């Protein structure tokens, strides 16, 4: 992934620096409003990363020791780690093969009387079935947190993937479609929740630093609860505002490149390329292929691509297979383990050319004949 950063972002960052306001300030507030409007998320709260956003979401929900939170193992490890940050127990659920996402059935298979929440991931930008999972969570009486780290620009049922989510966390890491270097956002439906999240990200202060400094009268702030320093800077937000303006064009380009990949790969036996689910459209933040009877193993495919100058990488990790979770004994996760073992992610970015795609798929075509 190569971030689409240029002179406009550099100018916006420089303007923020020249303004003298480089910490959390007016640009952050504007970015929160505009991002939330773009994803239909209600109220935006900018934070330092999607990981800190997930942490704050679980703090907001009041989760702690004794509570179980169902998560996919097939996700970057931050999804599960956020559960441990609040002292709750992550419970790993399997995913479906076609999308890499949790389903009502895979969640229900591991749900217990101690389940308080589910963190469902829009994996690699592929939206999960928002209608089905939100209804199930309501029926079960558990909270649904949407890990939308990769989902800016994806659609589900004709709406942005995180639209109308009770709470969703987003990432602006450089591997995502739009970036602020590091950074994240939490979107929530409730204005009261947004107010508390803003307090939680800023040491529990009852008035933000920006509002305090803008006041013409001395303000004696109070610290209402033990909280965190998870703020975004105005320099980051300035870049984010420019990036947000590019989102639609970036999604359109990536979907065109993904469609071309799918066409080029269609007649290569043993490969299954990721596609849109029936209910939505992916932004193709990641374009992965699953080996399905391919004559060469995944690691050998990656090695051969590297020898031919192609920077592909392994598929999505499985957290339960990492040393950090060696103390966890999950139930069977056959689909998760297959995807993490037999998939790889192909290059897809704004500088990718048709010639690049021809070369990449040509290497795969050669390997398919071995």
From TrEMBL:
Molecular function as annotated in GO: pyridoxal phosphate binding; transaminase activity
Annotated catalytic residues: 176 (proton acceptor)
GO biological process, any: polysaccharide biosynthetic process
Pfam name, any one: DegT_DnrJ_EryC1
Entry keywords, A to Z: Pyridoxal phosphate
InterPro entries per UniProt: DegT/StrS_aminotransferase, PyrdxlP-dep_Trfase, PyrdxlP-dep_Trfase_major, PyrdxlP-dep_Trfase_small
Residues carrying N6-(pyridoxal phosphate)lysine: 176
Name the record gives this protein: Perosamine synthetase
Record PANTHER family: DTDP-4-AMINO-4,6-DIDEOXYGALACTOSE TRANSAMINASE (PTHR30244:SF34), TRANSAMINASE (PTHR30244)
Gene3D superfamilies documented for this protein: Aspartate Aminotransferase, domain 1, Type I PLP-dependent aspartate aminotransferase-like (Major domain)
Family: Belongs to the DegT/DnrJ/EryC1 family.
Cofactor requirement: pyridoxal 5'-phosphate
